[in-house]
From TrEMBL:
Organism: Saccharothrix espanaensis (strain ATCC 51144 / DSM 44229 / JCM 9112 / NBRC 15066 / NRRL 15764)
Protein name: Uncharacterized protein
Top-level division of the source organism's lineage: Bacteria
Length: 105
């Protein structure tokens, strides 16, 4: 169920330990969730390398809760292919971000 939900989700809710959840654009790629934050993208207070967070996926059509899991955020430096995929996933805008995290489930 998780894999299917993440394949369809364009955004997920991320709540770093001790902080409120924030809706962020997400990309399911190579069996991992990637989120780009800061800059023109959503800021997620408390999100940093090694932080445990709660990841919630909602239905893109009904917005109903699908699944909530624990994840560990890992700061990455995206390669050109990953950066292009993140930008393409945003469709109507050209995002600029400060950081990209891989959320390890």
């Amino acid at each position: 169920m998780l894999d299917n939900a993440l394949r369809k989700a364009a955004a997920v809710w991320v709540a770093p330990a001790g902080h409120d959840a924030r809706l962020v654009w997400a990309l399911w790629r190579d069996d991992t969730v990637l989120v780009a934050v800061g800059g023109s993208e959503q800021r997620v207070p408390g999100l940093s390398d090694g932080v445990t967070c709660t990841l919630t996926v909602r239905s893109p059509s009904t917005h109903s809760h699908l699944v909530t899991v624990s994840a560990t955020a890992r700061l990455i430096t995206p390669d050109d292919e990953t950066s292009t995929a993140l930008r393409t996933a945003r469709l109507n805008t050209t995002p600029v971000w400060d950081s990209v995290y891989r959320l390890e489930l």
